[in-house]
Amino acid sequence: MEQRYEYLVITIREALIGDAVKPGKVQDELNDKAKDGWQLKTLTAADVKGRIGPGATEGLLAVFERPVT
What we know:
Blueprint: E1 5-12, H1 23-35, E2 39-49, E3 56-67
């Protein structure tokens, strides 16, 4: 039987406006997802549209994978 996977995509950013993403925040997010069985597949820098104002903030787009049980 072929292994099946499910995926989770999240954005990681420090705040709605202006702050750069701190390494500790990224580490916390990755460890939090790992506790639930998610494995990081890709981590990409991206402009993340905020809920306030017209611009975007720098952030990360993280894609996780885990086997479907």
